[in-house]
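notes to self, project folder thing:

trying the whole complex as one job this time. last attempt i did each chain seperately and stitching them together was a nightmare. two parts in total, labels are on each line so i dont mix them up again. if this works i'll redo the older ones the same way
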Amino acid sequence: MSGTLNPFVVEVQATVGGERVLQCYQCGTCSGSCPVINEMDYGPRRLMHLIQLGHKKEVLTSGDMWYCVSCYSCANRCPRDIPITALMADLRHMALHQGYAHDREAELGQAFVETVNANGRMFEPELMMRYYLRTWDIAGLIGMIPLGIQMLLKGKIPFIAERIKSPQDLDPLCAAPPDSKRAPMSQLSRTLLTLGGGGLVLMGALAGLWFRLNGNKK
Amino acid sequence: MRYAYYPGCSLGKGEQEYDLSMRAVFAKLGIELVELEDWNCCGAVHSDINNPSGAYAMPGRNLALAEAQGFETVITPCSACYKNLRQASKTIAANKSARQTLNASLAEGLELKGNITVLHPLYVLLNEYGLARIKEQVTHPLAGWKVASYYGCMLTRPKDDFDSTERPRGMDDLMRALGAEVIDYHMKAKCCGGALALSHAGVTAQLTGNVLVAAKDAGAEVVSLACPMCHMALDAYQGKAEHALQQSLAMPVVFFTQLLGLALGLERKALGLDRHIVSTSSVR
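result (full assembly):
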């Protein structure tokens, strides 16, 4: 039967979460349950339909799977037992590796994996630097500065990365992205990145202070 | 009682108050927690972005470590780590090829032969330790406190044995046992948007705001939760949420372990209550 199916349907059916995609009967419970439906291009129900119809490009270029917050509301309620949350992860994988992904969240995912791949554990300043170097999301970075200061003052920002004994053991478990310069960052470049980040935060603090003082004068 | 303890990355510096209060409370109750040696990141929602087996292989390494270090049960306070480790354990138990893939990817000398049980500390307290035993040890009841329990997503979803996915009640039961007045509100198991905190901060602010407004409107004076990502959203992003909703919230957001610690008579500082972004001075 699979010979009569659209190749994209076959491709999706071969993934962990996509096996039951043809079982969707469009009840819309998923989209009605989705907390980020307002941000999506289609929402899970229409995404299922587009997959069933084989509209690969529309599906993989959409931002929907990147806005998915993996809350399992849809999958939990789906009367057809489609693991939609897992399917969203499969669509992220497909979109990324076939060159369709363009959302900032895709860059965050790669920055996350690079950071964990290098240390074995998360190191937030490194994640931030990798993410902002990938996206040049200057507005986002500036928006983070006031919070960054508060967190700094509360001792919530680590300065030294916690590492497992041999991070290279994670290579087979958590592959670094194909476009990543795999050589793990040297301690020097890591320190420079952290210092750079700290400098930005301080500059932001001064700018914020300046704005606040000037605002109060009015 | 003795468990392997997997703190997870978020409990390092960012949400250290959860780690501090968890260890303090469990020590006070006489439950031994032994931190898993050389544990690695569970992968959050990104572990399978480059290879699909990462979803169970990343958490799977920690299960293999637990087995090698002589444990049958791992407890992990972060909802996301808990969901990842528990799902991985189930996948590996049910699926031989997943076990083979994991073991083939592990470093030499490490192998997962059996099955490891993964539990969340909230449900360890409720189901294995027992509310009655906790109640006996409460010296400072939270009488008159209006507490809204917030469960978020991954503590109760995907569906599991411990609580309802739609209307969970485990944390409410604990809060009642501590003497608090439990506030019911409709957003207790809705998403805080923490997953998008960096890439789409506006969405996080909006979703977090929706949760906090619902709790506040229902009369809550403090929100109790069990996940460091939720805490980051509801506490650290509360300012952004106020800005997004054009509404003042000033809602203290604390971990259930901190409230439990206060009820057991532990010091505020030992529970990390001075580390929050939104002031917790009303929580005393």
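what i see at first glance: The radius of gyration of chain B is 19 Å.
need to look closer tmrw
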